[in-house]
């Protein structure tokens, strides 16, 4: 488990936040007392840079990053990340790592669920379609549950969440990130497993509205600039 509170800052999401820039993409900063990590890096390095500076967060002291999958709306801003933090270790699914190496990052391919830091697990990867993989990022909370961060959920947000629960042996507090316009059955299965259902990025209004109306006590909204804190110090 991770000591102290876990802080998330949504640097970019499809849904705008006041005074910030946004586009179609996702990037979330995760901070604990022991490490600082970036999950995905949005589409546009200029958008990411603008929000990082406006929000006053520091990417130069990142300990590592996690890439969910090789789509531009998750990889695009890594050129900015590499400029701020050269040589950063980035846990990636199998795929075209050379583009990240060329930026001066240090990609490490995760072939299976891997503990990458105290209370931090890269989950999967799951095959979304032939030869294309996506992984999730699970962070242990002081209440012995996990947060599950998902990028686009091409293999299914429910499947990524299920794998996270199985591989960590822990219950799920929240599933946050892109659910990729899922059918309502996917939302239902996530809601069965998790205390909180937090569809952002590519989830779509229909899925968000379904989650909010069907599970009002579990729904949480994701938008650019949102800061969330989990657990007690
Ligand atoms: Fe995406
Ligand atoms: Fe994607």
What does this structure look like?
The chain has seven helices and 13 strands. It is 25% helix and 32% strand. The chain has 233 residues and is α/β, with parallel strands linked by helices. It has helices spanning 45-55, 72-75, 78-84, 98-102, 157-168, 184-193, 205-214; strands spanning 6-12, 27-31, 36-39, 64-66, 89-92, 106-109, 114-117, 120-129, 132-140, 145-150, 171-178, 194-200, 227-230. A seven-stranded mixed β-sheet has the order 6-5-4-3-2-1-13. Strands 7-8-9-10-11-12 form a six-stranded mixed β-sheet. Helix 1 crosses helix 3 and helix 5 packs parallel to helix 6. The structure holds fe (ii) ion (2 copies). One fe (ii) ion binds at residues 69, 71, 152, 154.
């Amino acid at each position: 488990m991770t000591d102290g509170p876990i802080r998330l800052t949504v640097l970019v999401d499809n849904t705008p936040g006041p005074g910030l820039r946004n586009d179609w993409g996702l990037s979330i900063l995760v901070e604990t007392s022991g490490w600082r990590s970036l999950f995905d890096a949005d589409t546009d390095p200029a958008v990411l840079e603008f929000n990082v500076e406006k929000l006053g967060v520091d990417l130069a002291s990142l300990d590592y990053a996690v890439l969910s999958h090789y789509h531009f709306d998750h990889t695009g801003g890594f050129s900015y990340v590499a400029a701020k933090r050269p040589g950063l270790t980035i846990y990636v699914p199998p795929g075209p790592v050379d583009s990240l190496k060329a930026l001066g990052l240090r990609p490490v391919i995760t072939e299976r669920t891997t503990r990458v830091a105290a209370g931090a697990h890269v989950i999967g990867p799951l095959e979304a379609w032939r030869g294309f993989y996506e992984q999730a990022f699970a962070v242990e909370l002081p209440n012995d549950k996990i947060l599950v961060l998902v990028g686009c959920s091409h293999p299914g947000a429910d499947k990524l969440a299920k794998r996270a629960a199985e591989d960590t042996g822990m219950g799920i507090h929240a599933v946050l990130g892109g659910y990729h316009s899922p059918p309502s059955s996917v939302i239902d299965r996530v809601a069965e497993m998790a205390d909180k259902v937090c569809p952002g990025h590519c989830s779509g209004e229909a899925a968000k509205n379904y989650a909010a109306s069907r599970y009002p006590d579990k729904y949480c909204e994701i938008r650019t600039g949102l800061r969330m804190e989990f657990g007690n110090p």
